Amino acid sequence: MTVEGADDLDNASRTVSVRIRDAEKVVSLSRTRVTRGESSVVSVAGAPGEVRYVRVAADALGEGAAVNTPTARAVFDDTAAVQTVGADADAGVVYAVVSLDDDGLADLRLQTERFGTGSVDVELAASLDGAVEDDATLDVRERTVTVSGARTTVVGESVTLSGTAVESEQVKLYAAVGESYVPLYAESGLAETDVGGDGTWEVDVDTARVVDIPGTYRIVAVADPAEQLGSSADIDSETLRMFDVRDSASLTTVEGALSLSASRTTIAATGGDEFTLSGSAVGQSDELRLYHVGPRGDADLTLVDERDGAFEQEIDGVDIRGTHTYLLVGAGRDGEYAHAEAERPAVGTLLSGDETSAAAIAKLRDAYTGAGSDDTVAAVEVEAVDETLSISTPAAQVAAETVSVAGRSTNEDGTTVFVELRRGEETVSTAEASVTNGTWNATLDLTGVEPGTYRLSAGTATTRASQEVTVRSPASASGTATSNGEQSSDGTTPSSNEAQSRATATTTATDTSSSEPAGTSPGSAATDDGSTTATRFPGLGAVPVVGALALVVLGLVGRGRRTGAKGTENETE
């Protein structure tokens, strides 16, 4: 209300503030919705000088809170308007007695730490057990913060931590390191974030900072950190306990991994024999460095992108024979290369170009794995050779049926191998195969091919191999026939000496038996098939007969030799 002067006092004025209220006794709250732990100011209006009771029922208290004076003092602040604070277990209330000032007003602060969540009725009465003159309702909500995320991650990777923060506006993350709590970092700036309208929050934490040493860490999420928001300073455990709303979770960080392998380690030195380098790159930088060192020490560099912890790089091929070494370098835990350059690294800053292959490799390794560096290096060697082709199967003898023909080749993948079986100028069967990872395989149909010796050949546009094979009939697959139709018991062909011995024994027996007519012995009788064996040696069978004839032959031979010797002696005399 403002009063201004008139006439001679036209330059004077006075302004005062007044409160207009209902004549009835009333109670009101400065905040009708709070998070447990916050406070609200209770205002009481009535006749100046009156005394009033501000009561809260005991059932509004949280679990474990006793109905006694200490609890009442924790609920009602002892301000100038408060005459006394107390509790009545029988009546089931805690209360504060206030005295209205000359304006008929009284204010006191209501703390909510001892309340449970839900609605709290604040009542105004003339006495402890008097009728309710007025009341106001306070809505108490629980302010909570939760944090969760991956339990284990690789150092250098980004890990997502998330949670809820009901009735809070910001969340800040710390990690327990030694005796302190160190602020965590996101990909850009501190690991702090606003709470969404649905009470949730999420931060992508960079594990290359603070938690970059493998181990298990306690991660603490603090709601509404006040003056700590935006600060990179560490805090101690005592300061942390001052934050009423916090939650924690554990996070384990492990060492990253880097591997490198080649789809083929032997290729053709044609310049177009493509192969693939691939591997894992967990906990490394997004951009990897791939060095190639040739047999003569020449080197080049390719930047390779890592995706989801893996990579793959196609190599067009090389045209110099010898060992080609590929070195893959990752930035390690800190995400920074030991050999750092402006934007794009160059081989010339590390090598002069006059190094041997071994020296170039050693210099590259030293640049990234020196003292204090956590960069990781993986290597693989690829041998570049002249194009070659060989036949591995079949063996020297095959059956006249479907036959598998296979071999190896250093030709480029996809090179066509032509396979043929020839006899002289005649091509008997053909097939085609394709080189895949250094091998090829074809199928020849030899069904109906006549037994005999053939030339099996395999070739490409630049290479060729051949060998001699013998084709056998399928019926003789289990053994080879002899010249007179006999076959040894173990499936092998008898030697020439064995065959000659058999032939000699047969001839000798025949000649001997025919020298004496059948039936000359008394009582003998000829057999139906004309054989003399049973007649001359009844009951002895064929084997004794042959043996006896052999003895006769040997005796005659021996006698002839003695006679010859005697004749010689006579001549000498």
TrEMBL record:
Residues 499-515, 523-539 have a biased composition (Low complexity). Residues 460-539 are annotated as: Disordered. Keywords: Membrane, Transmembrane, Transmembrane helix. Residues 460-498 have a biased composition (Polar residues). The chain crosses the membrane at residues 537-557. This is Uncharacterized protein.
